[in-house]
UniProtKB/TrEMBL annotation:
D-isomer specific 2-hydroxyacid dehydrogenase NAD-binding domain: residues covered: 110-288
Entry-linked PROSITE patterns: D_2_HYDROXYACID_DH_1, D_2_HYDROXYACID_DH_3
Similarity comment text for this entry: Belongs to the D-isomer specific 2-hydroxyacid dehydrogenase family.
Any one Pfam family match given in the protein's UniProt record, by short name: 2-Hacid_dh_C
PANTHER family for this protein: 2-HYDROXYACID DEHYDROGENASE-RELATED (PTHR10996), GLYOXYLATE_HYDROXYPYRUVATE REDUCTASE B (PTHR10996:SF283)
Record protein name field: D-glycerate dehydrogenase
Gene3D superfamilies assigned to the protein according to its UniProt record, in alphabetical order: NAD(P)-binding Rossmann-like Domain
Keyword DNA-binding: no
Keyword tags: NAD, Oxidoreductase
InterPro entries: D-isomer_2-hydroxyacid_DH (IPR050223), D-isomer_2_OHA_DH_cat_dom (IPR006139), D-isomer_DH_CS (IPR029753), D-isomer_DH_CS1 (IPR029752), D-isomer_DH_NAD-bd (IPR006140), NAD(P)-bd_dom_sf (IPR036291)
Chain ranges of the D-isomer specific 2-hydroxyacid dehydrogenase catalytic domain: 7-310
Amino acid sequence: GKLKIWVSRPLFPDVLARLAEHFDVDAEAIERKHSPEQVREKLLGVDAALLGLADRVNAQTLEGNERLRVVANLGVGYNNLDMPALTRGGVLACNTPDVLNESVADYAWALMLAAARRVGAAERWLRAGQWSGGMRFDDWLGVDVHGKTLGILGMGRIGQAIARRATGFDMPVIYHNRSRLPEAVERESRAVYVDKASLLRQSDHLILVLPYSRESHHAVGAAELGLMKRSAVLVNVARGGIVDDAALAVALRERRLAAAALDVFEGEPAVHPDLLDLDNVVLSPHIASASEDTRRAMAGLAADNVLAALGFGPRAGRPPTALNPEVMARWPAGGPR
Ligand code: GLV
Ligand code: GLV
C-alpha cells in the first residue's frame, strides 16, 4: 500500500497535494495542541510526519514505534526533537534552515525599531482615541536606532543577515557566539567579536538569535539584564526560555531597560502576565518567519525532505536538509517498510 504521513498542522493545499501523490495524507484540518499521547498514537500509524514546533518527539513518543522513518520540522530550530532518541530509533529528522534567514532578519529589525520608537504603544493610544485629548512635543520619545551599537547574541546565518542590514543605519555591530566566526565572515557582516559581558554592557540594541539548549536556558536572566544599559532595547527572536521572562518584566517595570520586543516566550502560547501589563514591551506570537514567501518555502522544503528521504523525486535518497542523515544507512534495503 501507499506510505502514510501525518501533517500535524493545517498546511498550504498545494504542498499537501504534492505529498498526496505519494502518500496517504492524514492532515490536521484545525490548529490544536497535541498531547504526548496523541503524538505517540499518530506517529505509530505513519511512515513520516510533518511537525510543528509545539509537537515534541522523544523516547516516550517513539516508544514501540517500528514504522516511522522521517520527521520533518516546520522550522529551523528543533529543540522539540530529541535527536539522540530519534537517531537511536533510526528516524531521520529534518528542519528548514536558510529559507527563512532573510525574513527572520527583517522581522528582528521590525521588532527592534518598533520597541525603540514605541510603535505598538503609540498605536494602542491612538486607537483608544486619546490623541484628540492633545499630545505634547515631548510625548512618545523613544530611543534612536541609527548610529547606535547593535549587539547580536548567537551569530549563525540569521545573525549574519541581521548584521548586514546595519550598514544603512550606520550602526557598529558587535557579537558573541560560542565560536568566533572566520575573519572573512566577520568582515562581510562588519561584526566585531566580544565576550558576552562586553556584549551586554556595550549594546544599545541587543538581538538574541541563538538556538535553545540546556546551555542557553536563561542566557539572559537577572544578572545579564543588570549589565545592560538603562537605555538599551532587547529583542528575542530565538526561543522562549533563552530570556528569563519574569526577570525581564521586573527590569522593564523598573525602567532598568528602556524597552524589549519578544516574538517567543517561555511556555508559549502562554505569555508571562507581567509582560502583558507593560507598555515598554512589544509582543508578537512567534511569527518572525511568517511572510507569505517564506512560510511557503518552509513548507515546501519540509515536503522535499520527506519525499526525498523516502525515495521520491529528483533528490531521491538525498534529503536536502537532514539533521542525522547517517540513520538512512541503517534502513532496510529497498527503503522503509
Ligand atoms: C521558528 O522559530 C523556527 O525555528 O523556524
Ligand atoms: C514633524 O512632523 C515635523 O514636521 O517636524
